[in-house]
Amino acid sequence: MTPLRSLHALVALLCLGLLLSACVPPQTHAARRREQLLAVYPPGRTTRTDVQKKWAPIAPELMETKPASGWGAAVHPAIRGRAAASEQRTGQVVSRCERYFGPDGSSGGLCYVWFYYDNRDHVVDAEWQWHTD
Length: 133
Known about the structure:
four-stranded antiparallel β-sheet; 4 helices
């Protein structure tokens, strides 16, 4: 096979791979990315400081501590539902929520990554979101 044909074959395979990966429903992709995040940032063992070190120099663009009256009183509307949903999903109390904005290593696009912490600043949950959602 000539180098030009090899290049064409490689480009065709890359295009096919991109097409097939685009066929994954957004919810499925988000669920997979969430599982990957939880593997990298194990709940109960990863601290907020650990997360900040891994994301440096990127800092959280949104952060909030749970209001005394609950997440329904959160200042940021985006945090209200997500923090409460994390508590329901995990059965853990979420005392702090942070959202990072940055590159998504698997898709090459941009994403939000949410981290939910307990009262000791240990990760209890993480969540992935397309930046366009």
